[in-house]
Design a protein that fits this description.
about 325 residues; six-stranded mixed beta sheet; Rossmann fold; alpha/beta
Length: about 325
């Protein structure tokens, strides 16, 4: 399914994506919290993609990729695989363009995210958990029915679209010392890094990853993508692994990936809720957890964080938010 020689997007593609999705994607706010600044010992600027359409940054990349299709390809429909947020984003983007969408979803995906996919009129196809099963199910549908694959992160238009969140962030706040995003498959971090590297002043670019899904962190250490691990984390949106395309972009453009365990992630999620009154899903809270765990590294610095999504599973919300000491 991936291209033989994956095309790596550039900053020009991000700017083109921003123009393409203008009027479709929300320009999300950048919010501050004096209380969190005091806890972290640095200046935190949160780009609130939890307030994006479909509840996550994923709509940016999905919208850009769907709108970039020519008319003939669009008529044949779109196929993708997703644990939830990208699937809902593709479903919404295809609904806006008036074309069919099929979303392959692994067992165990949050019901709230499945409900969103169906609400946007996409066809839902279940498969076994794991990236291999997801990819196989997509390949089968494409072989039998045709259509265009829009992968959740291994796609140049998707990556460029994800980068528009960082483009807006820098346009709103000017300079940053550090830019952080969560990393799963690497699409958001890859697109964000392209924007950071285009800034006049040097910006440190960091990914934030759960300990139980640390394949991106380890891949950059060993020099190749890791595709044969099973993730064990509450962060359902970060269970994917890097593709060759996102690995290449991260290897060239970022300064490292920090890790946080699930207990720290849930504590950070509760802090965002109690201090900022913002509902974010666990995947969104990993960067804040990493900042709080590394105070010396960030002290006195100006840190931009992309809050990637707010699609909290209602079935888990009571457990996650009930007590500062509750576990994953």
């Amino acid at each position: 399914m991936p291209e033989a020689s994956p095309r790596l997007p550039a900053i020009a593609d991000v700017r083109q994506a921003a123009a393409r999705i203008a009027g479709h994607a929300h320009v999300t706010p950048v919010l501050r919290s004096q209380g969190l600044d005091a806890l972290a010992g640095c200046e935190l600027l949160f780009k609130c993609e939890n307030l994006q359409r479909a509840g996550a940054f994923k709509f940016r990349g999905a919208c850009n990729a769907v709108l970039a299709l020519d008319d003939e390809a669009a008529r044949a429909g779109v196929v993708t695989q997703s644990s939830g947020n990208h699937g809902a984003a593709i479903a919404l983007a295809c609904k806006l363009r008036g074309i069919p969408a099929t979303v392959v979803v692994p067992e165990g995906a949050p019901q709230s995210k499945l409900d969103a996919i169906v609400a946007y009129s996409a066809r839902l196809v279940r498969c076994a958990p794991g990236m291999a099963a997801r990819d196989a199910a997509v390949a089968d549908i494409l072989a039998r029915e045709g259509g265009t694959l829009i992968h959740p992160f291994d796609n140049a238009e998707v990556i460029a679209g994800q980068g528009t969140a960082a483009l807006e962030l820098f346009g709103h706040v000017g300079t940053l010392d550090v830019l952080m995003t969560p990393v799963g498959g690497g699409g958001l971090l890859s697109g964000s890094a392209l924007v950071a590297r285009a800034q006049a002043d040097r910006v440190e670019v960091l990914g934030a990853e759960p300990e139980g899904a640390r394949d991106a962190h380890d891949a950059l250490e060993i020099g190749r993508p890791i595709t044969d691990r099973s993730a064990d984390t509450v962060c359902d949106g970060l269970r994917g692994h890097l593709a060759q395309r996102t690995y290449d972009l991260l290897e060239r453009n970022i300064d490292g990936i920090l890790l946080a365990d699930d207990a720290a992630v849930l504590a950070a999620m509760r802090l965002v809720w109690t201090r900022m009154k913002l509902l974010v899903e666990p995947s969104s809270a990993v960067p804040l957890a990493c900042v709080l765990a590394n105070p010396q590294r960030f002290r006195g610095r100006r840190v931009g964080i992309i809050l990637s999504g707010g699609n909290v599973d209602p079935a888990m919300a009571g457990q996650w938010f009930s007590s500062p000491d509750s576990g994953a």
